[in-house]
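Recap from last week: sequence in, structure out.
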Amino acid sequence: MEKSALQIARAAYQPKLPKALLGPVVAKEGKPTQSVGNQEEIKQLFPNTYGMPVIEFEAGEQKTYEPFNVGIILSGGQAPGGHNVISGLFDGVKSLNPQNKIYGFILGPGGLVDHNYMEITPELMDEYRNTGGFDIIGSGRTKLEEEDQFEKGIQILRQLGIKALVIIGGDDSNTNACVLAEYYAAKKYGVQVIGCPKTIDGDLKNEQIETSFGFDTACKTYSELIGNIQRDCNSARKYWHFIKLMGRSASHIALECALQCQPNICLISEEVEAKAMSLDDVVTYIAQAVANRAKDGNNFGTVLIPEGLIEFIPAIKKLIAELNDILATPEAQNLGRSEQIDFVKAHLAKDNLEVFNSLPTSVARQLALDRDPHGNVQVSLIETEKLLSQMVAAKLDQWKKEGKYVGKFGTQHHFFGYEGRCAAPSNYDADYCYSLGYNASRLIANGKTGYMSVIRNTTAPAAEWIAGGVPITMMMNMEKRNGKMKPVIRKALVELDGAPFRYFASKRDEWARQTAYVYPGPIQYWGPSEVCDQTTKTLQLEHQ
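Predicted structure tokens:
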């Protein structure tokens, strides 16, 4: 393939590894673990992979390993650094025995079920080191949940002599990885399953997982774009820019971008829910900031909006919960689109029907119709940024008639999502992802299954990072999905008592009134470490 000058230069970059992974390792085991919730239910569902200890790798003695093969799957949405996880796994597996092979399953978990695969050769791997995207083997959203899928998978795994399967994905994908690990362990099939924490949303993290890979690069990419908009905003001085940012449940991306760029307003979905704010409360909050800046002669500004905001407004969240139950019934699934709307209205509780009817028709239809493969509302399709700007405009018009507002309110709208998902990984993500993959090879060599590859202490220099594994069951609880209770990895939402949010909350009133914009500029790959290797503001504040 043709390469740009940047790609050629980046291909030569050798990602850094934790000191413990630079030679042979031994697994130091901690105490038995339990799930974060619903302990008895999770233990019954995962009797073979529940309660395993957290492990940490330390320097060990050299061993000889018989040849073995490894399979790899990219699952779900793309995230910067995926290719580096694969290259780290590739190098790690080859370092154990040069005869080892890696097979990639094409277009996600569906490739395992359909026996669609390719061998990842050294020549192929070298084409993709330190590049963005998932295009080396592609990704997909097939869910591995049925016994028939597991059995079809074991057929090809045995045929290729695959000892272990590494699944790179988010919370749902790693839940599937855990289910698969349990099934193969129960059947004594002898195939290990290891997960790697991926999602730009940043919601796959806990005490053991400091951050999900891709979050760093995506936030830096979005922050560059937001900074560019703020520079234009402060130059033209005539528009309020409403910017929606990817992150379907948690507001980590919006919060991180706010910390990097210091916009006038950043909404945090988790706070909206905690304060039981109505849609009108949110609109009033924005409108008041617009009015205050207008008093200073500043008829411009920036507003950051998390993609999933609308689901966190309590009245709408309650409505969505009932919509999900109604739409999960067989009667609803057999209806046409227009018939579904009538069916929904006929079955909604009175208070939810009132909320449903109060929404703009386009928003109501989007809430009531299509769901994603996980049964969730497709919030990315809901133009929350336009909904809010229109409602703010209406409120300002009302205030103008009442003599409470004197100013001009012009708007521009943006949605940053795909722009960040396949960006070339930052040095942090290049190093972090390579370490996750290399570390996965050591989990395999130590006979582990049902574990997530984890790298901790990542605000320190890479040599001081801590490598190990955490049982996936440790992160699970029971939640309702598609009308049924299922075991899932608990999403990590923005903690309102956490250091990143508290710092943001201490500054936002100042940022709202003043023009305190920061312009981060593009990701830097070469130069001073404080410029090129910095972690996210979120990680810095969490580890102060």
